[in-house]
Design goal:
With 198 residues, this protein is mainly α. Helix 7 runs parallel beside helix 9. It is 80% helix and 0% strand. It is elongated, with a radius of gyration of 18 Å. The longest helix has 18 residues.
Length: 198
């Protein structure tokens, strides 16, 4: 598709395609391509002005994800803050705000900024609960479990992980369930519950 693009192709359309190509590259583990695509997407979206505002959020999100995949958490955090700011200016998109806050909270954990992580994850959980979105609730609980584990609040971590597991089992989300069970197992080890950890 990129090879067929020409000067008649809208900047907004091209930026959106680049942003999604960035996400695809990231899912395939190609951080370098993800960053290259997303940088072009951001530049095009910004050049489009007001018309590119909606796509800019997606492009910045892809750039933040690429930076995170490359291990550059500081850049990912800063980009995530900009995404959240843009989404707060468009309150009709609570789903995307909730997702941005979830990612931002996880990055804050990596940076050791636990207060920011807690605020972001709590807000993300609230948005997911208001929407009745069990899948996003489960992921927010998993991240809150990660935060509690980092803070050595293992009983709180266990509760968060167990609630996440319950929701994911109800949804039959096996791929996501495996990761949360892994986290729960480590928490049980910390609590001395060796039999359950296995």
């Amino acid at each position: 598709l990129f090879a067929q693009a020409d000067k008649k192709t809208s900047r907004v359309v091209f930026a959106q395609a680049l942003a999604y190509a960035s996400f695809l590259a990231m899912f395939l583990g190609d951080a370098a391509s993800a960053m290259a695509y997303s940088q072009k997407a951001v530049a095009l979206a910004e050049a489009a002005g007001d018309e590119g505002r909606g796509v800019l959020t997606i492009a910045l999100s892809s750039l933040s994800s690429g930076a995170r995949a490359a291990g550059d958490y500081d850049i990912a955090f800063t980009l995530g803050e900009r995404v959240i700011q843009l989404l707060r200016e468009s309150p009709e998109q609570p789903f995307f705000l909730g997702m941005a806050l979830l990612g931002h909270g996880s990055i804050a954990i990596e940076l050791g900024d636990y207060d920011t992580a807690r605020a972001s994850l709590d807000e993300s959980l609230t948005i997911a609960r208001e929407a009745g979105d069990s899948f996003r609730i489960a992921h927010a609980l998993n991240s809150l479990g990660d935060l509690a584990r980092c803070e050595q609040r293992y009983a709180d971590a266990q509760t968060a992980y167990e609630n996440s597991v319950l929701l994911l089992r109800e949804l039959d989300a096996q791929h996501d369930l495996a990761s949360v069970l892994h986290n729960l197992g480590h928490t049980c080890l910390r609590l001395g519950n060796f039999e359950r950890s296995y």
